Amino acid sequence: MCYNFSFFNYLLFNDLNQRFRVLTSFDVALGRKMRMTTLNIPAALQDDRQLRSLIGLGLDAFEILLNEFIVVLKEAQINRKPKKRRQRKPGGGRKSAIGSPQDQLFFILFYLKNYPTYDVLAFTFNISRACACMSVKRLLLVLKQTLKNLKVLPKRMSDPREELVQVIESVDHILIDATERPIQRPQKPARQKDHYSGKKGFHTVKNTTVADTERRLLIIGNTVPGKQHDYSILKEELNPQTDWFESTEVSVDLGYQGIQKDYLSAQNIHIPHKKTTKIEEESKSSINALAKA
User: Fold this and answer.
1) How far is it, in rounded angstroms, from Cα 167 to Cα 177?
2) Long-range contacts of 48-52 (CB under 8 A, 24+ apart)
3) Cβ neighbours of 138 (radius 10 Å)
4) 3-state secondary structure at position 202
5) pLDDT in tens, 18-52
6) Where are the domains of the chain?
7) How far apart are CA 93 and CA 95, in angstroms?
8) Cβ–Cβ < 8 Å for 175, 251
9) Which own/partner contact pairs does 80-86 have at CB distance under 8 Å and 24+ positions apart?
10) Is 139 exposed, middle or buried (CB count within 10 Å of its CB: 0-12, 13-18, 19+)?
11) d(CA 111, CA 117)
12) Considering just the CA atoms, what is the radius of gyration of the chain in Å?
């Protein structure tokens, strides 16, 4: 009996091809479904409360920031210096994997608000880890220039002293505090010791912040290890020999005890009184009694 092997090969190939098409279409459909359900940005932009929980801004502030962000983003694309000779017009070529400028602004604000790892960020926005890393570095510069154009970028402690004094004197009342945020535990024991915060119980970094009563951030200090005390950071960044608070009221918490003695214009510095317990009062009275005896 003679068999037509070419016919059987055709049937086998056709069957495998059909199965491959089914699996491919299933993967594509599954991938589209995962992309839609990973993060629904348009839905988040319709809910003010959800938007604040995700990026820290409301709808009105996001719209104001977006208008200037689009302008700066286009300027960055035009002024970008390509590594090779340009073959397309500025703005041409492959588009961003994140999406529209609106999605890119949401992306970078989401990163700054939640501070996820690049793996988590890539999974959330359905992009690669390398794309997430490069997008963060690129969009941080765009966002910084956007805030600078809107004149809401806070001053740094490293700026000239005259500019810092001018900012402080521009408002009637300021609030000084240190903000502390967690970081991944450093690998080197020396860095672990420097960044370990006994107050929080984990490894942190902190910055000194100067804000007004309307919660606008005026000045931000340098990033230092979390072990360093709040008041010691302030004395390093704002020299006590300078009269910073001559015409401005300032309020601090109990972490800045001694500020009224070290800084000029002590009458303008307000610090809450430390609450004493009944045991402390009894011990003080017994010490006074012994001193008089």
Assistant:
1) 17
2) none
3) 16
4) strand
5) 544 444 444 444 444 444 446 788 888 898 999 99
6) 5-38, 42-82+97-149, 156-270
7) 6
8) yes
9) none
10) buried
11) 9
12) 29
